[in-house]
Every structure is written in structure tokens, then in C-alpha cells.
Amino acid sequence: MVRTSWKKSLRGKVGVIVGAGLLAGSFGGTAVAAGVKASKPSAKTQSATFSPPHLGGLNMSVIMDGTASASNEIEMHAINLLSKWGAKVSVHWAPSTSIEYADMLHGGTIMEGGLSVGLAAYNDGIPMEAIALPQPRQDFVLIARPNITSLSDLKGHSIGILDMVGENGVDTLIALKAAALKPSQVSIVDVGGQSTRLAALVSGRIDVTMLSHSAEIALQGQGYHVLYDYMKQDPNLYDGIWWANPSWAKSHEQAAVALNEADLLSFVWFNNKSNTAAAVKETASFDSGISASQTTQLYNELRTLDAYPNGSLLTPSGLKQQEIQYAQVGAITATPVVSNWSALSYGKKALAALGAAAR
Predict the structure, then answer these.
(1) CATH code that applies to domain 141-233
(2) Fold of the 6-137+238-358 domain
């Protein structure tokens, strides 16, 4: 089996034994304070004027995968909106998918990760539900050292990834399928987050890896080759998804709807070119190592690629399409009914509440 079981992965990498209490969805009271009532869109909120939700008393622990980078601007802008609306939000960066999920089990409210991450957990019997879509398209390129110029050259080379459970693993399998290669014909190495993988690629410790378009821009003119651009060649692949325990989302509907509202407003804000400087400044607040000029170039490129189409929501057809593709490359081994592991009503309510503000 290509995919690592969540239960085995958690035990083996971080020593976490998934107990009955955690599987039942207990977050130990650290997630959300009582008193935040669910809201239903009224005729007024469905108009062109959007009334921000009041999230005072809401505590959210957000688990992010990998390391902070310019690629996380949309998620971080949405989190800042939640904070402006009164929520108290803490952000934790997990160096691996296994640690990310372990962090969520031990008190996280929501977790950002690809479809394979949540669905693998769901297939292992762990309660997970897709509730929002911060990354409608994959901000990844498969990039190689100068001596590798095409997918056909991959055989026998090393590919550095975060882990096989997450999107890096899926993307590796997709690229290998396009190259008509089997995983056994390359060396797949767990390296770490993007900054670690970038350093490993430049130093020659690995030959190929998945990096964001920001890293592609940073490496321009140095002889590296983009072998596969997931945003261009697989534009219907979702990237990051917000996942939550179903019981939390159900009992905190206003928060789940607000998360979708924050995502939708972030898309509109980002797509307005006049906000470029503000986006770069905001990114520098959580990733001080960015180059302002390269990040500006990146955000212009992402707009050109339509990375964040206004009004983007999780859809049954989109989720099913990816589920099938992931199953075809062996990234997942079971394809349960989409409605069993996704809750799309929160996004629909958010879109109705925003009205013209989401376009």
C-alpha cells in the first residue's frame, strides 16, 4: 500500500496512540467557548451589504502544515479576518502531516491539509469533515536540478517530499503516472517542509521536489527545470482544505460559516491588484524571510493563473473528481460517499450571506 495508515503514522512518528476519547472527538474544552450561537442568513445578510459576524468568545486553534511561506497568504488573511471579527485565534505550524493531525487531536479546532490528508484519516475511522476551501488550486510545481530536464528523466532519481500521507505524496504519484513510472523506479525521501526541501534541492541532497510557485520564482535563472505545474496541468485539483471534527462544526455553525466567509472575502481581496502591496506586507508579518519583489511577482503570477477564483467553494463534484484521481494513483484505498466526509452547507450559507461581496 502506498499510503501510510494514519494510526500507524501517528504512533510511529510522534508516539500518539489514538484512544477512544480522541476518536469520539473530545478536544478537552480548548476549542470554542460556549455562547457562540449559530446564525442563519437573513434577507438583509443576503443583500450586497455584508454584516461581519460577531465572534467574541470564540477561541480557535488552527493547525497548519509545513512551514510558513508566501503560499499561505490566503489562509493567514482569512485568519486575520476572523480575529477582526472577535475570535481569538492561535496558529500552530506542524513539520509533518502526522504531527499536524496529532496536534489537532490534542486540542486543535481546525486543520489545513489536502484532500488525501483528511480522507486518509476518515478511512482510518478518525472523525474528519471538510468544511471550507482556502486553496482552490494547487500551488505546486515539480522542480528539478539542472541535469533533469523532463519527466522522462525522473527514473532513478530522488524526490524529496513532506510525507506520503499528504499532498506531496499524492502529487508525486500523479507526476510519476504522467511519466509512466512506478514509485519503485525512483527514490522517495521524507525531507520536511518547503524551506527544508528547497535547501535540500539546492544543496544536491535531493534531485527533485514539490515547491510553490514562489520557490520557482526564487530559482529562476539558476538552471532548474519545472517538470510539472499542478496549477496549470491539473487546474481542478484542490490544494488546502479546512478540516474539522464533525461534532465541533455542527455545534459551532457560526464559526464554520464565518470561516467560509473569511475565505471568500480573502479571494476577492487578493484578486484586486491594488491590494498587492498590502498582501506582501501581511505575508512579511508571518514569514520575515520573503523577498518583497519576488512575492509581488508571485502574487501577480497567481492572479494570472486564477489561483483563487472568486466564489470558490467545496463542491460534491469537485471532491468526487479528486477522490477518484487519488484512488487511481494509489494515494487512497477507499472511496466513501462524499457526503459522509464533507459538509458543504457552511459554504453555501456563507456565499448567501456575502452576496455581491463574494464576487
Answers:
(1) 3.40.190.10
(2) D-Maltodextrin-Binding Protein; domain 2 (3.40.190)
